[in-house]
Every structure is written in structure tokens, then in C-alpha cells.
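Fold this sequence, please.
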Amino acid sequence: MQIEQLQIFEIDNPHQVSSVEVHAQVLITSWVVIALLIALPVVATRNLQTIPTGLQNFIEYVLEFIRDLTRTQMGEEEYRPWVPFIGTMFLSIFVSNWSGALLPWRVIQLPHGELAAPTNDINTTVALALLTSVAYFYAGLHKRGFSYFGKYIQPTPVLLPINILEDFTKPLSLSFQLFGNILADELVVAVLVSLVPLIVPVPMMLLGLFTSAIQALISATLAAAYIGESMEGHH
């Protein structure tokens, strides 16, 4: 068997695995993000203290922030089961966005394409938006049963097409607003680095960190708001 035949996971854009096309560079950066999200709480909780300090204090602060965000959008009675989902959504987007701004992905040379933040790929943002849509419908059906579908004819059956269309536009808006903002930010920084490589890009990169955090907050807030809306008794 030739050596070339053993190179199953050669990084390409896209790469054919069996009959499925995958973007290996996106998978690699996503695995890095997942590893960071797993490693940080594991390290922080190895030696739990009654009075938290250091990394444990930081982790508890992040958890409290996510709980407050979820409670604000869903209400005191419904928010607890959804804290893990909203927290995973927020942290994965936040770390993905910051990894694109802080980690020197482009230093790693690839035969095709380049490494970048996972949220810089439309497939990632669409997947996150579809997860939110699945959670949205599950929450409504679990809470209200088949009476959930009554919202489509409220306040009048005339609005049925518009109400159905609304459920299709929600994942579209979630995916494209995140993808578009992250892509635009990286393009602006890349152009400025090529034109003025020393001075101008630094404040723009700092601004990029801020906007990346805001995008994670917006996406998590919208996801929580949509899920909370589906569990309400009215539309």
C-alpha cells in the first residue's frame, strides 16, 4: 500500500470522507475550542474550596452570569433546565470568536484553505442556529403539548403564513448575523494588517475582541428569548 493511501485525514477544503464532504480545518479548530472548554472547568474544580479563589472564582462568576442571563429571558420558573444549553451556546461562541482573534491560526500552513475561528464558517453558525430551533420547538411542545401549534393562528388565522415564516427566519437571522459579523471583523483586521502592519491593527483587534464577546452574548440572549417565548401561553 502506498503512503498516499494512508493519508486519510489530509487537511483539504473540503475533504471527501466516504461519501460525505467535511471541512477538516473547521473540525480541527472546533476540537481545539472543545478541548479548552473541557479543560478549563476540569482544572478549576480539581480542588474545590468553600470560599472560591482564583480560577474557581472565575468559573463560578461565569456560571452565575449565564444563570442570570437565562433567568432574565425565561423567567424564574422555567430557566433552570435550560442553563446548560444556553451556557454551552454562549461559551462555545465566545471561545470560538476569541480563538479567531487571539490564536495565530494563519501561522499554520495548509495545502488548501487556512485555519480560522469555527464561527468564521457558515456551516458552524447554521448548525448552532438549527440546534436553537430544535430546542425552541422541543420546549414549546414539552411545555404546552399540541396546543403549542395554536400560536400559528393567533391572533387571527389570516396570519398563519407569516407565523410559519417567522419560525424559518429565526435560524436564518441567528446564523447570518453571527457569521457576517465575525467574517467582517476578520476581513477588516486582515486588510489593515496588510496596509499598516504595526499601529492601526492593534486597536482594531481590541475592538474585535469586544465585538466578538457581544456577538456571543447576543446569540445566547436570542436563543434564550426564543425558547422562553415558545413556553409562554401566548405568542
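The chain has six helices and two strands. The helical segments are 24-44, 54-74, 83-102, 122-144, 160-195, 201-230.
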